[in-house]
Known about the structure:
By secondary structure, this protein is an alpha+beta fold. The chain contains 14 helices and eight strands. α7 packs antiparallel against α10, α7 (230-246) packs parallel to α11 and α10 runs antiparallel to α11 (334-359).
Amino acid sequence: MSDDAAMSSAAPADSRPNAALWAEVHTWLTENWDPDRSVDEWWKLVAAAGWTAPHFAPDQGGRGLPRRVVRTVRSGFKSFGALRPPGGLGLLMAAPTILTHGTPEQIDRLVPSILDGQVAWCQLFSEPGAGSDLAGLTTRATRDGDKWIIRGQKVWSSQAVGADYGMLLARTNFDVPKHRGISWFAFRLDQPGVTVQPLREMTGDAVFNEIFLDDAVCADGDLIGGQDNGWAVTQTTLHFERTGIGAGGIHAGFPEPGRRGGMLGRSAGDAAREEPEDEKLTLGYEDVVELARTFDRTADPMIRQQIARLYAFSETGLWNAQRGKAEAKRGGGLAVASTGKLSQTRIVKLAAGLATEIAGPHGLLWGATAIDGGTVSKAMVFSAASSIYGGTDEIQHNIIAERTLGLPREPAPDRDRPFGEVLRAQAPGKGSGASA
């Protein structure tokens, strides 16, 4: 594509409204939007029509459309003046995982409340000693009749403060190799024994949290995918996270699902009228083009070339996300998801760096003193995190090398040893690893 073609295009393909779909959304809203409904009622109606997750299959509560149309649908709601469907990590990761591995009873009980915004979710994977080596987690789940007692600590859990449920990984067996003794739980956060503490970042926000679990309880009926089979379930969750990130998936922002978000009892019309602009922690192609126009840099050949490169990266990222979805249907796609995650890292960093170059000194200002309210400076500071969240770039490179290129795996002498034995070897004199 030439520079002129990239610059004259209104937006990447995913955000140029599909005319037929846009008209369908508009027609449906004309017939159904009632600002006097409560948010609770409105979201249930939206979910029943399949608009919350239009990329899900019809029998899963969606409309069987490509993932890329999610943005078009949400933009259609906003332009009409209607309150948008709920988003969040439940929609991005929990619902697809439960649909893949859950029993019919679990699907019927847990997924609808995600689609109609009644419940908000967070991810409880990483630990202080288990980040890139996620399988090294030591949070323990001990069975007690028809429930599990949870002890341990999680960290870097985004949106945990407002979440009702967490996607919890806990070790249910210390006597097998580390990848084989993990289980995936739908874990209720609002209970005794759960302490959530926000973590303030250098952006000034507190998106992430650490969670302490002291004899918290999880019902056996909320164990997803079977005992000790959590690593397989986790790969599904990570696939949807990484493909979602690669496709610009919805993580958070207004409107917030769940009772803690404060939305459910409000008037849908009031909520829509008070809807703020989404806070941008990352920038995309459209944002950079608009910034170039604002600062009169669209004629700069170097800037145009970089914008064209950003456009190309954005388009190929979307194509890769579609490929990942097709691969997932065939039972694969993990390496494709890793490629998408790396693609998004490249886009986030290029967009932030290019925006800073375009804005010049203005891009260094923060808050009200900045022309853009500090969006550029915040995006630049946050862009470093793109190499970490969703799995580090190094981990993604390893997955691609091993599963696509067929290169030998890194040496792992503890791979086939019981995890409790590994822990004892790492911490001699401190007792059994099973009590860690």
